[in-house]
Amino acid sequence: MEGTIKNTLLKNIKFAYNEALELIVFMGMIANEEQLLTSAEDLKLEMDPLALSYQEEARTLLSPHANRELQFFFQYNFFHKALDFAFYESICTCAEPLTAEVWIARLEKSPAEKVVAEMVYGVYYDKLEEFLEGNDWEVVKKDIHFMTELVTRTKPHQEVINAHGPLLECLAYPEDTKQRYMQLFNQFYRDVFSLWKDSLRKASQEASRRYEEMFLDNPERFIREVNKNEPALYDVQTNFHVSFISQVGNHCLFFNTSEAERVGTVIFGVHNALVFGPAADREKTELFLKAFSDKRRLDFLLLLRKRPHYGQEIATALGITPAGVTYHANFLFFLDLIQIKREDHRLYYHLQVDKLRELLAVTTKVMLDEEPGRV
């Protein structure tokens, strides 16, 4: 069985830099900088000064109009994705990595209505059943007027509520929307990304080689301990794009290609090994205590103490959105307190009881300056 898992992972996973992905990750990071800096502070992470300098200079290089357009298409929630989901879909449905220029040319040929439909999906994917009102998405996405009626009647989750008005605008004027995003991508590539694309590629590929070596040494352990996922998740062809700009992250995206084949993409931060590797006892303690500064994370673990739960169950129980589940889960992944396993076509969160005991013991040692069990 172990050999079968290893062979499947070796067959399905490859590490390859996708320049088009790095382009839109870059744009999303600039538009959501405040959210991402808050997240880094929560996790006690220091952003790479070079990455921060790229983002700061990028804003000065763009015109005020381009900065406003960047906010229009990307600002709503970096972890949820909204209007920008359409751009990820257009890249990740290609089986092979794309250069930024090739992708921009491909996007130019894609019908405006198709891209706008993917924006709708991006805003409502975790509220799709309510949004569709019993209709089939494959049918709805081809009727822009009906989509507009459904969007008008259904508010998205609070995390992306500010995308509601802009989405209606895109639906009302799809061709104008296309002109706007094509101008934005061409300008951002020309005035910003092209200046650093070689440096970004080099830094990302150097990290990619390190991660690929770790993966090849022990594929299953890499997926479980560094990627923090269940190996069974990768039963389709999946590309690991190691991103310098994203610094830290494990974003898994799965799409059906035009040939109806399912493909996966993982946007993997260059510093993930530092984040998920061993930390000093004091740092572990600080993060462990920080984890429970938000009651919802404690409730999250107490749910899993009873039995494993899948994402929607947790969202319903805690009164948060599926994207909120992902956000809190990332914090708990950081401490190795939970893991994901696929069961019955769903991904279930499991509590790592031994790891919880270990962190409690470390906390006792740091706080009381004594070994666990000492009287």
Description of the structure:
There is one protein chain. With 375 residues, the protein is an alpha/beta fold. It has 2 domains: 2-269, no CATH class; 278-368, Winged helix-like DNA-binding domain superfamily/Winged helix DNA-binding domain (Arc Repressor Mutant, subunit A), CATH 1.10.10. The chain has 20 helices and 7 strands. It has helices at residues 2-12, 19-31, 33-42, 49-61, 64-74, 85-92, 100-109, 112-124, 128-132, 137-140, 144-153, 164-172, 174-217, 219-226, 272-276, 281-291, 295-306, 311-318, 322-334, 353-368; strands at residues 13-15, 238-243, 250-256, 262-269, 309-310, 338-343, 346-351. The strands form 2 sheets. The chain has a 4-stranded mixed sheet. Helix 5 packs across helix 13, helix 8 packs antiparallel against helix 12 and helix 11 (144-153) packs antiparallel against helix 12 (164-172). It starts with a helix and ends in a 7-residue tail after the last helix. The relative contact order is 0.12.
Cα-based radius of gyration, to the nearest Å = 21 Å
Classify the beta-strand content into a percent band.
Answer: 5-15%
Give the helices and strands as they follow along the chain.
Answer: HEHHHHHHHHHHHHHEEEHHHEHHEEH
Taking the sheet with the most strands, its summary is: 4 strands, mixed
